[in-house]
Amino acid sequence: MSRTAHATLALLTLVALAGCATNRVTREPRQIERPVVERLGQGKVRLRWPDSFTHGPVNIYVGETSDSIDRTRLVARATGMSIELTEIRHHSLIGDGHRLYYELARENGDSVIVAERRLPLVGADNFRDLGGYRTADGRTVRWGRVYRSSELAGLTAADMAYLSEIGIEVIVDLRSERERAQNPNPVIEPLNPHELVLPVQQRGMEPNRVQQMIQTGTISAFYSSDVMLTAYRSFVTDFAPQWALLLQQLQDPGSTPLVFHCTAGKDRTGFAAAVFLLALGVPEETVLQDYLATNWYRRNFTNMVLRFAPIYSLFRTEPEDVLPLLAARRDYLEASIDLMKERYGSIDAYLEESLGLTAEKRAALQREFLVGEVLTSEADPER
Fold first, then answer.
1. Which of the residues 47, 124, 258, 262 is marked catalytic?
2. Is there a catalytic annotation at residue 20?
């Protein structure tokens, strides 16, 4: 590689790293389908909900965990579709820099618990909670138990202190040996979480090969899309032992809070999250929306790479040639789900026959990670 190419690569690497870095502000997309919490800055959060959520006043309560919300102390009462809460006016906990849980109680007696989906970390832009999603039978995934993330190598000291404080017990690493060697997970003291390594190597995604193709301009949008679809199908056919061990780990007492991650927190992690949520009975569309949310949380990184890929390749590679590798696309995960149904007849059969999640084990998993009562058939699980 020439000196110019080396310099360009160094620049691209620095820019990419900068794109990974985030801040403690957590924003959500403008269009939302369920209540969300956004951190606007130190001591200030905003709660928003869609028009379909309520047509009357909403009472708001707060707690440090989803199980410790103080329902004897009304924090605020909202009459619109959003409200901003501050430390001074509403509750001292809001200003301590930590992620809180809010209960939104409606006039009809129903309520929902919400929290920031993405954790307020500086060194991991895609570290998020899988709690809060509704299942098809009306129950809700527990907050604060299972997380999905991008790689952890960039965590700051404050980030690690935060993760230690929320009590991360297990880190499941889905990266290859080479990825782990290049960017090892930091030691999160004093807990020193147990680390479970379940390597999943994406076909056609070897870093050196992709890097060379981008540099030489031999990559194309068609190739990028095709290799991604192949990878997602291989998740179903080639890596059942890894997903089975992940589910087994989740069934072990004392394993949570747990986080599983790969590099971008998009493909391998996205599939793992889908398996977990589908096993709990979360509808396919909700699972797909969780998967697609990566595009929002990693938008800064993606835009930065797309901007500098042509420079790195000396303008031989166009941004649209690389985008399929960076994006979470509906047809990728749908390719996995479709193959589950094609090979096994149904998602339920895939979970049982390929991953060993029997009806008994699945029921135990649901008892551990779901809260609420099963709704009657005429009830709306999203309400």
1. 262
2. no
